[in-house]
Sequence to fold (346 residues):
Amino acid sequence: MKVFTRDYRITGEYHPLWGDYFDGMEPCVLDIEATGLDRVNCKAVLIGLLTRTDSGVRITQFLAENHYEEAKVLDAAMDFIEESGAGFLVTFNGYAYDIPFINARLEANMLGRRLSMFHFDLYRFLCKSTDMRKRIGSMSQKSIENHYGILSDRGDTISGRESVALFDQYALSGNSTIEKIILTHNREDVLHLHRLMYLALADVPDLHQALAVYGLPAAGGRLSVRHSIKRARQGKTADPVLRITGEQIVDPISCAYFPDGDSPVTAVFNSESRSFEISVPVSSHPDALFLDMSFLRGGINEKDPALAESLNKLLSDPDCVNGYLILSPRASNMIARYLAEMYYSM
Fold:
């Protein structure tokens, strides 16, 4: 196995509001090259990872020199991710391909490891939260790069499909020219994905609402949280409900809480499915929704300083008036994340 690094001077946050949700969580942009799409029979032979440095970003690549070094590549990449202090992954269609492929190959190689952390899949985000597919048609990474005018900046000349055939040649010959072509393709995928994060997120009309649909990190990335308002059916008089759902990414638990005289909240966490659902009734007045925050003042969170600080921020937020939280998209995200963290830690 070979390891390659290259540094670039690219700095800054992905979006002016990014720190509201990812503060203290460093990104790791990931892309893999494999011998095919079938994660049962094909192998991961190159993993490229982009992380931040003091002066910009660094791309680190782990390349197998033949078809028998997959375990070395996987182990080295997992060690790197853990030691880098990365808080979340960034991929393009990694939800469907890169992450399940890596986990399948970790299992196939009996390495006893699993890649589990909050994952921001730009492809999935744009499909779920924007109308980009309608505007540009193809949602391939290169099509989106072309849309933003950076496709011509690429230094590679091959596709992912061509990379598969080239690796077969490289494994037999060790040819340095082929090695450079394969590395360049993977490196350009990672670098341009990082650039697309700046460009595509700047085009999102309301990042608060978009993350509510896609899922935002909570509990330091151990949870992914989404929410929506469930309104009563026509003719019914029940209050609307703030419905919070998501995934327990790390250390899943099973527990349930039901409404009582102190709290109107229903919360169910399932470790087997790694899911959770929280429901809390809210009040409506003409065009606005409000959440009575009084049930959170009972000192539940005194044992957890971080939760206590989060609650204080909520209660002093401009959208919290006389103990009622006005459920703007931003405030809804704040309370959804807070409630998920609170019941996950109880």
Q: What stands out?
A: The radius of gyration is 23 Å. The chain has eleven helices and 16 strands. Residues 10 and 56 are 5 Å apart (CA to CA). The longest helix spans residues 176-202.
